[in-house]
Amino acid sequence: MNHASTRRGKWPAADIYGITAEEYSNGRSNIEVVRAMIDAGVKVIQYREKEKKKLYKYQECIRIREMTQKAGVTFIINDDIDLALLVKPDGVHIGQEDLPIEEVRQLVGEEMIIGLSTHSPQQAQEAVKRGADYIGVGPVFATRTKKDVSAATGLDYVKYVAEHIPLPSVAIGGIKTDNIASVRQAGADCFALITDIVGAADIGARIKELRARLV
Length: 215
Ligand code: TZP
Ligand code: MG
What we know:
The protein has ten helices and eight strands. It has 215 residues and is of the alpha/beta class. An eight-stranded parallel beta barrel has the order 1-2-3-4-5-6-7-8, surrounded by seven helices. Helix 6 (121-129) links the parallel strand 5 (113-118) and strand 6. The longest helix is centred in the N-terminal third of the chain and has 18 residues, at 54-71. Magnesium ion is lined by residues 78-79, 94-95, 98.
């Protein structure tokens, strides 16, 4: 198997993609939230933390690396390639305005998964050509969780990706218990939710509820 198929083989089908965000976690730490996600059976977890100083991010990521490794959970770090080089997660996730994916590949080597956020058919096609292992698709619905967010794409973009793009897709943006089934219907492979999961009173119960809508 070549490197790309090994990286892409780590990807779960049709499931929840958990993302940390301490500011929306109702007083719980990222570590507590990750624990709850792992206990609920989430198979991919991304560390996304925009406000903290690098030292605290590093310390949290080291712990999350241990927790995810033990549990066999795929661990992705958002944005910080330096952190990824130190912590050695399974992958990194970058946006359109982060470092170019080709340069990130040079830095992280051939084994790490690289996910790229996309917001249009053109960006999705480019992501394939430029070697992304999976793409973020969205924001599907309006959200206030991300500060510099682009306009909502709607479900049509999710459908476009399902029909035309030969990479796993992770839908994101405004996904909640009451609309996740529509995103599944549109053909997304994975479903990334921030506030609906980290802000839930009982994270385990919420994940169960979300999963029940994916079957
Ligand atoms: N990228 C596109 S939308 C978004 C990110 C990180 C935020 C998603 O958060 P929520 O709370 O699930 O709408
Ligand atoms: Mg980014």
